[in-house]
Each structure stands twice: as structure tokens, then as C-alpha cells.
């Protein structure tokens, strides 16, 4: 793999993973809105006590290693796409391409209604590309930086428009009163 074949090997593994999901008849269960959720995030891996090439400080305090990005689909959490990254790479850097590819991978599984869900590390306007790909998206905003008009609109909705779906989770949908 080290002799220039890493990318082709990763492509084969990705395709084998997608083929396994499709051929096994495994379901990609949608969430309560009917969307198949596509959750993306980086996962710091501690390699601080090694001498591996590319080990660097991650966003976690005192953790040196790598910070790969993974994208999981459905309630089951099927791994649809991944990207190996050095620890010092910010989560958003290169994320748009990974997410676009993951949306296309999920579409190859016959899924049409997709909701991309990301945490506040991905609070960037460029992730609106999900709409161009025909997917909906939800990004946890950083309250210190949220300046979107929809915040005022959401606050103005009556209490009846909100449904509590968990201890700290509420949902609302357009055109509810």
C-alpha cells in the first residue's frame, strides 16, 4: 500500500463496504422525519506515544495523533465514507468534499431523502452545498457566532409548534401553528 496504491486500495474498500450494505439487504433506517441521517464528525485518535509519521496535536487537550473524519448513515450508523487526516487538520477543512461524496454514496444505496447532521465544528456556510446535492442539513450553531435570521423566526413560533423529542431536544416543522 505504501508504494502509491493507498488511494486505490481505499476506493476498493469503500466500494466493498457499500456493496456489502446493498447486497446484504441491510436497512438504512430513517429518523422520525423520514430522512436517512448522514452524520459526519472527526474522531481524534491518540498516537502520542508512537513515532508514526504525521502525528500532531489534535483539538483535544494533550492528545497527539490523527483526526480522521467519518460519515455514518441511518439509525444503525453504517460507515459510508471516511477520510484519514493529520491531527492538526481542522474538522471543516476538506469536509465539503467528503460530505458531497457521502451524499452520493448514500444515493447509490437508493436513498433519496437525506438529512446531513454536523456539530458546531462544521458551522460554515460552505456546508450549505448539501442543498445543491438535494439533501437537507442541520448544523449545530455555536451560540457565540449565530447571527442567522432564522433564530428570531424560531423564537417567535408558538409553544404549540414545538414537540419535545428528548430531554434536551425539541423539533418543529414549517407551517405549524
Describe the fold and architecture.
With 177 residues, the protein is of the alpha+beta class. It has a single domain, classed as Nucleotidyltransferase, domain 5 (2-Layer Sandwich). It is built from 4 helices and 10 strands. A 5-stranded mixed beta sheet has the order 6-5-1-7-8. It has a 3-stranded antiparallel beta sheet with strand order 2-4-3, with no helix packed on it. It has a two-stranded antiparallel sheet with strand order 9-10.
Q: How many domains comprise the coordinates?
A: 1
Radius of gyration: 18 Å
> Order of strands across the widest beta sheet?
6-5-1-7-8
Shape: globular
Average pLDDT level: 84
Element string (H = helix, E = strand): HEEEEEEHEHEHEE
What would you say the CATH architecture is? 2-Layer Sandwich
The biggest beta sheet reads: 5 strands, mixed
Amino acid at each position: 500500500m505504501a508504494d502509491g496504491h493507498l488511494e486505490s486500495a481505499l476506493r476498493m474498500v469503500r466500494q466493498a463496504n457499500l456493496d456489502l450494505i446493498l447486497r446484504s439487504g441491510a436497512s438504512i433506517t430513517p429518523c422520525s422525519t423520514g430522512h436517512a441521517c448522514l452524520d459526519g464528525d472527526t474522531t481524534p485518535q491518540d498516537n502520542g506515544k508512537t513515532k508514526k509519521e504525521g502525528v500532531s496535536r489534535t483539538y483535544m487537550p494533550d492528545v497527539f495523533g490523527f483526526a480522521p473524519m467519518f460519515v455514518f448513515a441511518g439509525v444503525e450508523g453504517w460507515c459510508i465514507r471516511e477520510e484519514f487526516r493529520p491531527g492538526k487538520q481542522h474538522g471543516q477543512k476538506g469536509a465539503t468534499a467528503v460530505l458531497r461524496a457521502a451524499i452520493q454514496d448514500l444515493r447509490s444505496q437508493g436513498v433519496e431523502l437525506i438529512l446531513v447532521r454536523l456539530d458546531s465544528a462544521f458551522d460554515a456556510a460552505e456546508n450549505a452545498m448539501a442543498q445543491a446535492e438535494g439533501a437537507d442539513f442541520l448544523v449545530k450553531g455555536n451560540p457565540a457566532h449565530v447571527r442567522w435570521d432564522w433564530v428570531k423566526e424560531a423564537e417567535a413560533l408558538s409553544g404549540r409548534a414545538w414537540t419535545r423529542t428528548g430531554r434536551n431536544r425539541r423539533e418543529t416543522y414549517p407551517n405549524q401553528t
